[in-house]
Amino acid sequence: MKLGQSDEALTKIKLATDLDPQLAIAWQYRGEIEMTHGETVPAIDSLSHALQLNQTAIALRKRAECYRKIGYNDRAEEDLHALEDLTARTMK
Questions:
Q1: Cβ neighbours of residue 67 under 8 Å, at least 6 residues apart?
Q2: Residue 5 to residue 14: CA distance in whole angstroms
Q3: What whole-number distance in Å separates Cα of residue 75 and Cα of residue 36?
Q4: Which of 5, 31, 47, 51 would you label with 23, given CA atoms 20 to 30 Å apart?
Q5: What separation, in Å, do the N-terminal and C-terminal C-alpha atoms of the chain show?
Q6: What radius of gyration, in Å, describes the C-alpha atoms of the chain?
Q7: Alpha carbon of 55 to those of 2, 4, 19, 48, 65: distances in Å?
Q8: CA 69, 80, 75: angle at the middle one, nearest 5?
Q9: What is the spatial distance between Cα 67 and Cα 79, in angstroms, rounded to a whole number?
Q10: Which residues contact 5 (CB under 8 A, 6 or more apart)?
Q11: CB 88 within 8 A of CB 80
């Protein structure tokens, strides 16, 4: 992605998630790349998979952004509340 080769990045990250479906960071990156391609629903699916494996602030924030984009404001708010909870837990 940083080299401006987003199509190749998407192909490679899909391969990574196929090879190791338990790698949360790969699912998160996949969702982020799908977002840049305008693939909002697939991005939500990928970010949801990442969050099932490991809840991170970035994945919650990105998924909330996707939900807002398609008008699922209630789900976006749920993610933002989960983000607040996660942040509060990590600050303790």
A1: 44, 73, 75, 76, 79
A2: 14
A3: 21
A4: 5
A5: 35
A6: 13
A7: 24, 28, 21, 9, 16
A8: 50
A9: 9
A10: none
A11: no
Classify the C-alpha dihedral 42-24-22-90 as positive or negative: negative
pLDDT tens-digit series, residues 5-35: 788 999 999 999 999 999 999 999 999 999 9
Question: What pTM does this model have?
Answer: 0.91
- Which tokens in the block code for residue 40? 């909002």
DSSP annotation of 22 reads T
Ordered domains of the chain (ranges, CATH): 6-91 (1.25.40.10)
pLDDT at 38: 95
Structure tokens at 83: 């983000």
